[in-house]
């Protein structure tokens, strides 16, 4: 803290427990707080460094000293309507002043979490995403995230939260999304964009990824390129049979003058088994006819794992006969046969932007929806080696 004392220099007041200077300052304060020789003795601003140490009080430290939870401190400082005993209110505010705590907006955030799909690799992707969300929340000193599996439960408990983040590929009915928006208008959807006029979103730019993959294949001399994907993705309030990756593949392939008839295999769910089935069908349709593609773009690693298993079983040489590239860059991509080239989605950046977007919307009561696309990056391995 800075203390102003007439005819004396400005003094540094350290936070308790940070260094030996603290006790001396406490003794000085006790001896002179009521001394008329020091009129105007007052707190001006908190210092952040004493004896070379970072001493700015944290939310956790304030809560511990006041004997309340971190969420109580956060709600008291950020929510004027928060109901709390007057004695507790005064104690918390006194501790904040004594410790020089600088309030930072820390909203209570729920995570609308998809239930397990039963597909190990798909669930692993979302498990990793939950982990980075929790780590990001901790780095922001937010209360522990509350994970909720049901949109109906989140709607019922809306008064407990300031906003929410969605994780997973669950398809929510339009009526449920509108009901949620009525009681909890600030939310950010990760990976999907189910209600672009109601909530913000942060997604990988899968359309650009498809163009990047086609460009890389063409640059490597591949010209007969197939696509393998699944169904069940949504855009806006519309449930399309085509995933955005398939739509983008068709669009960009046509723009680049590539043939797509008979080269798009996109049906069923995003599972290893379905990837195996679709790759089997591709080989059956083209090998004997002499029209085998020389490149294959797969919508997700979970499908690509099954596709590579089928191609190995059918003696299709990868990448010499058929180059394969996928999306997600999950850890399993390093251990397939051959190791899978895949476009990496930066989950830490997804999490960082999700929190940033949500907190910005809450602080500024933003009504215009914000939709952020993040680029992906190819991690080359043996299944497809791009041109240097």
Automatic annotation (TrEMBL):
The keyword Transferase does not apply. This is LacI transcription regulator. It comes from the Bacteria. InterPro entries: HTH_LacI, LacI/GalR-like_sensor, Lambda_DNA-bd_dom_sf, Peripla_BP_I. One of its GO terms (molecular function) is transcription cis-regulatory region binding. Keywords: DNA-binding, Transcription, Transcription regulation. SMART domains: HTH_LACI (SM00354). It comes from Bifidobacterium bifidum NCIMB 41171. PROSITE patterns: HTH_LACI_1, HTH_LACI_2. Residues 57-102 form the HTH lacI-type domain.
